[in-house]
Amino acid sequence: MSMLTIKQMSWAEKLQTMEQLWESLSRDEDRLESPDWHADALEETRQTYDAGCEQPVDWEAAKQELRKRSE
């Protein structure tokens, strides 16, 4: 698929293509590797949560907050 083809696609078509691509990639879980920094970031978050410095946030509320920040 060329960049020209992608540029001519509608927003919905682009999202659908992205979803199909991710579905295809995620079928082969053995090839999906997290970067090294990801384990470190998760461990840091776990430690701050265990220390009471991190509170869980509802996913819908988090999305709304992130959308407000990008406006």
Number of strands: 0
Q: What form results from the Cα inertia axes?
A: flat
- Bin the strand percentage: under 5%
Mean pLDDT: 91
Q: What share of the residues lie within helices?
A: 55-70%
Structural class given helices, strands, pairing? mainly alpha
Task: List SSEs in N-to-C order.
Answer: HHHH
- Biggest beta sheet attributes: none
What does this structure look like?
With 71 residues, the protein is an all-alpha fold. The longest helix is centred in the first third of the chain and has 16 residues, at 11-26. The protein has helices at 3-8, 11-26, 36-50, 59-69. The chain contains 4 helices and no strands.
Q: Can you lay out the helices and strands and say which pair or pack?
A:
Elements (H helix, E strand, L loop, with lengths): L2 H6 L2 H16 L9 H15 L8 H11 L2
